[in-house]
Design brief:
Number of strands: 0
Structural class: mainly alpha
Largest sheet: none
Strand content: under 5%
Number of helices: 3
Radius of gyration: 14 Å
Number of domains: 1
Protein name: Transposase
Order of helices and strands: HHH
Shape: extended
Distance between the termini: 6 Å
Length: 49
């Protein structure tokens, strides 16, 4: 199965995100302020191999 990714593979449409989602959008701000990398450690042992 998928292992912890060492690098992000972005969609070729990532530029559309910048055009469609306003700079002052709440979810964009949350994404910029919070480092969600801890999720990998929290979900490491979820019964999958």
């Amino acid at each position: 199965m998928l292992q912890n990714q060492q690098s992000m593979v972005f969609s070729p449409y990532i530029d559309i995100y910048d055009l469609v989602v306003p700079k002052d959008n709440l979810l964009r701000k949350i994404n910029d302020l919070i480092d969600f990398s801890f999720v990998y450690n929290e979900l490491k042992d979820n019964g999958r191999y």
